[in-house]
Fold these 4 entries.
Entry 1:
Amino acid sequence: MTRLIITVAVTGSVPTKQQSPHLPITPDEIADTARRCRDAGASIIHVHARDQNGKPTLDPDVFAAIAGAIRAQCPDLIIQISTGGRAGADPQMRAAAVRRLKPEMASLTTGSVNFPDRVYENSNETIEFLARVQKEAGTKPEMEIFDTGMIETAIALADKGLADRPLHFDFVLGLPGGTQSARPKQLLHLVESIPRDSTWTVAGIGRHQLPMGVLGILLGGHVRVGLEDNLYYAKGVLASNEMLVERIVHIATELGREIASPNEARAILGLSHPISNF
Ligand code: ZN
């Protein structure tokens, strides 16, 4: 089986320091976390930015500071920039960090979702715009899939020449308004619905992170963990990002699945973009 790519989503837009003291917020905190997760076995870091008050921001200067700090501590880690809309809905702002940094990877959500607190709106116009910006930057999109129909929208982007094949997907399960119950058969259906040459990873939300990760290992996919999606190691026990990476490495190793280094992950994902020094 292909080596396992572990993505760590260290911060996100929703968790707060009050909820977990382990949450990295500043560029230096994120870079320190990145190094510990890289040492533990992560090959991709999924990056969100916060302002000085800890609030989500799309400011490309903050993303540049984070990316520079990560690069200084982890020369080979794959940096994946979020283009998610929780920090602001304006498509131009959501694209700003990708335009500026030209990262190896960025997220791209191919549909709208009814989150518990708001609608996460991604019109076709916004999706195509963000895809075009990523293509122009030489950035590989990770298609963030909350429901089956979003796969078809991602494939349509490739058909229109707005994304290069083979596509890479991230299945997000366990989120109210999306594929909430995160049943194994739901993940199987998603996996069976993507083009054969695609790669995929799975991100379970909250208590679904561990079972979905284990299933991802067994099915030959890849795994995303981290505090963006789940603050707990077990019920009532707070996790750090590196604890969540270490656990997946341990389980994968026990199951006979070897862990990909960042350069092995680049080969698996077909990343050809030179590593930026920001
Ligand atoms: Zn994210």
Entry 2:
Amino acid sequence: MRLLVIADVHANLPALKAVLAHAERLSVDQRLCLGDLVGYNAEPSACIEAIRARLDVVVAGNHDWDVCGMQMPLVGTTSQARQAQDWTRAQLEPEQLRYLQQLPNKHVEPGVYIAVHGCFLNEIHVNGYVTQTMLRANLEAVAGRKEWPNLGFTGHTHCPLLAYLHRGEVHWESPSSPSSWPASAQAVLINPGSVGQPRDHNPDASYAYVDTELRTVEIIRVPYDVDATAAAFSGADLPEAFARRLYQGR
Ligand code: ZN
């Protein structure tokens, strides 16, 4: 199966449009979004509509559920993040809030992959960062569940990643060119990076093109009009810092 994988769009419409236009050249069997459609940036409603129209599978992110009151804000949620949540909620139609609320906690494509927003360690998958120190635990969790395929997709960190467990060893990289994993890997994790707020010091939008039969992943970076995203903040009650950070990719 050939997959277009996006995550963490975060209401950044110019970045989303640039990625979807760029991906048109690819042959794709399924388009997958790993959640966090909204939050941080200024065009949540248009991003929800574009994702509903263009993506085949969408799972919930923590921001999607936070904005419709599905979970209490986590300890450590900053006042800026709360301000953005309140503003975002006010921009959305009741029907769009219901759409975010019904997004699934995970998606299993039988025999192919499991997709979540956050981590694989808890039954609620929208939270929990799969950072470097958490790789082994998450790889073992994916390898250990019989009902889950051994390929897992995760977002949430906003940093692209390929990691796999092979003969008991954890291998990982942040792929900058097409990369692959061994057929005998016990578990594989892929993070496509973030469309709308990259945090790996590269401001370009990030997405992944994955071929599950060839066992290859390509992380693709797409420049987009950051000025247009920042301009959309004018008149919105959103912290300006959220626009400034886009220029630095952090
Ligand atoms: Zn996010």
Entry 3:
Amino acid sequence: MIIDQYTRLYGVMGYPIRHSLSPVMHNAAFLERDLNAVYLAFESKDVEAGLQGMRGLGIKGMSITIPHKSGVVPFLDELDGLSENIGAVNTIVNNDGRLVGYNTDAMGALIALKDKVDLLNKRCLIIGAGGAARAIGFVLKEYGVEVSIANRTIGRGKALANTLGCPFVPLKEIGVVDPDLLVQTTPVGMHPDHNQCIVSPDVLKQGMVVMDIIYNPLETRLLRVARAKGCLTINGLDMFVHQGAEQFRLWTGLDAPIDAMTLAVKNALGKGHDRD
Ligand code: NAP
């Protein structure tokens, strides 16, 4: 790869950021498509300053991650319809200084789920009420799935349930829901806390579909227990790659090299690139 005076700059902004595999994934995509572009990780607590830098230096696109997905919204010039409805942005496109926000988490999750499950008339329990839960809840409701929300902080969980027009269930009572599909969206069980699991094994029934949107480790404790109980399990890798593929398309206008992106992330997980 040659970096020169024409190289276009992209990145991810969050705090903390050193666990992110977005740089590995997007740089693999740029390389595969032979684009003169590079993608870096920016660790910042200050969203407003970060976006000023993006405008001022002509950074072409930015992924937005924890904890800024909602906080970034007031500083953007425009939101697309989906991110406006969700109230969270994970992607910014810089159109000659005009910053436009999108949410590709929703589409990434939907593609990952539809690849493995027929969603028609399904009942889904979403664990969590943060940015990812909002995006997934919104897109599943649009798709006609019957959604319920469970969350640690009751006020936040109820607020999301109200927004989606669906029931809220306290975390301790999720056993009564008996969903076809359970989607785990909290960081519980993520590296380095491999042994944590937010769902009691009694909740998991044979034939249930269990998706954990964590991709590090690829098989969380929740998925391990679910697999042992005869559930169909889906890890967070496909969602991660598909949300990234949608970002790549928004930034470049090209189809994303999904296989190269998936391989890059898998290799990085194997080599511990997420641990520096
Ligand atoms: P967020 O907005 O900060 O929301 C975090 C959610 O997790 C909240 O509902 C929070 O509950 C809950 N939570 C956090 N720690 C908890 C704990 N110890 N016990 C119980 N609940 C806890 O984060 P986010 O953007 O939604 O992301 C959440 C996770 O999804 C992260 O691990 C992220 O890496 C992953 N993710 C994956 C993808 C992918 O493509 N695979 C995409 C986006 C996000 P409270 O309301 O009680 O605080």
Entry 4:
Amino acid sequence: MRRIIPLNRDWGYKESFDENDILGNDKEFSKVQLPHANKTTPYNCFDEKMYQFVSAYRKNFKVDHKAGERVFIDFEGVMTYAKVYINGHYLGDHKGGYTPFSFDMTDYLQEENVLTVMVDSTERNDIPPFGFTIDYLCYGGIYREVNLRVVDENHIDNVFVKPRVGETNGLELEVFIKGQAEMIEVCIFDEAEIARKTFNLGEKISFDDLAVSLWEIDAPKLYEASVNLIKDNQVIDTYSTRFGFRSCEFKTSGFYLNGKKIKIRGLNRHQAFPYVGYAMPKRAQKKDADILKYDLGLNLVRTSHYPQSRHFLDRCDEIGLLVFEEIPGWQHIGDKAWQDVAVENVREMIERDWNHPSIILWGTRINESMDNHDFYKSTHELAKSLDDTRQTGGVRCIENSELIEDVYTMNDFNLNDVNKPLRYQREVTGLDREVPYLVTEYNGHMYPTKRFDSEERMVEHCKRHLLVQNDMMLQDNISGAIGWCAFDYNTHFQFGSGDRICYHGVMDMFRIPKFASYVYKSQADHDYVLEPVTLWARGEKGEFEGKSFLPLTVLSNCEKISVTVKDETKFFYPKSQTYKGLSHAPFEVKDFETIQDWGSGWQDGIFKGYVNDQVVVEKSFSAAPIAHDLEVSLDDVVLESGDYDVTRMLVKVVDQSGNILPYINESVDVHVIGVGQIIGPKRLNLIGGCIGAWIKTNGQAGSIEISVESDRFENKNLSIQVK
Ligand code: GAL
């Protein structure tokens, strides 16, 4: 029977490669764990050439297998070009860092095996997204997991579960087989089995009238299909996959999930993290999905600009976060051979991901490239031939672009005209009819904002996100809008703030919120949100009508808010007239008498949010904040042994009211003992009063003790159990 054996521990790694490395001496190799970044990068201000080199990876392993079984090596992601050797025999190569690939090693296996991978992490002109400049870094190394797969020589290669949702619910299944068999048995599971049928090979595999719950954003019910391959009356292989019952369709009138219209409120995500770039394991990938859904209140993420980790997508399935996934690329289209790789990327992406209910749209264009009829006809048609259940889009930034895909997906950077944050769709498409239409980027480079920028800039940053969200809600033929972007990211020197960071996120690289993140969170109803967009400092803003702290924007999903300064309490209501589209318009605090002009007494401020006249959330600000405490928190205090695991630590200095002090720039030292270590530097400098870091396990069970030391505060001690 099928066995999947993770092969992520104790690889050899060397920062160069020559033919002798294919079988040569192990001594030159250092020990590393996968996912692995070929180079650890600093937080910013580094030369992106530092990880662009060719390296060698080496793994010694044994594997039991019987006659009649095949042993495959499955790579989930190697950046960017790989050549794979087993026991000195060349198995083949793979172009492209974002999609999986496999080789059958069986004929060359021995008792003890040496697997060698040459990894070329240079920006090769023959592989998307490279060939011109791109606004992000792609890093290097074997940065996703590797597995051994032992299967019968007759086995299941892939399964595509196609749910049918309507008056009755059912499904069809496509089963892809390597070799020979006679029958296929399919079992559908909830917690228990809900259906089971046997089919002859070649017979249509279909189930009707299933009593199932649909996969919804707020109730993302998942099922499992388990497929048995039968030969000589024996089950010789079993392939299981998760899926959900849902329908999805972009129409001219918007996007529909299970027949219900949903306005898409999304952000773009790059899969990069500080120090290790793309090489983050499961828990960090899943956490990002949670952040997007729960901390940002989004209903969709675009995996800009490439297929992302399966763990991330799995989590999107589990929590009900819609996904728009696209092939790798950025503005540039290469020659025919380059385009062939891009077409192959379409196949690899779809065949890997077609069972994720969260994915509702395939992106079959190179992000923001020019029209190219033949190329995009072939990517679109391939997508449709592989998957007739989903529509395609292709992200462009040009008007009057040829619509080959099902959905006109447009990066609309129009916000300099504040009266018209988004263009009308016909103005963009140039068509004489409405088509399914989705805005896939806005803001970003038009208004980069750091988490430690001045209050005025942060207010404007929020306003720009509010205006677009409002406008997309008001335009019925816009399915939704996906902002640029969720998290700041390291980038090439041609972009960003000169320090190799694009500060385009509504959160920073550590996923610490900027005020603009509350624009999104306040539109959702998961939690009560009350976020005054202020540093509550008298001299932070210029004078305005004699009152230096007014007007003040408050982002909240409450019905009304009160603000108390000294003895004066005033109530405010959402600016629903200005923001007619938003379910929760922002508040504007003004006309406050207590604090008059510059130089008069400065006071504490108390904000309260009300629903049904009850206070549901409260926030206060100190007039005279001082560094009161060093707060250190962990996202998880229990991790898993085995392949290495990670969790995020946040360190902040807060004042007496618990607010981060934005201009404190002190450093802390982190000491980690036990079965783990910190990723990146051990001395952390607060950036805007706060910093993050990831703690990783070394694979063993036990405990990790963390001590955070600073000059001003007592040491903070935390511990993590690794089970
Ligand atoms: C877009 C591009 C994104 C990012 C963004 C910055 O043109 O698609 O990848 O660079 O600009 O605003």
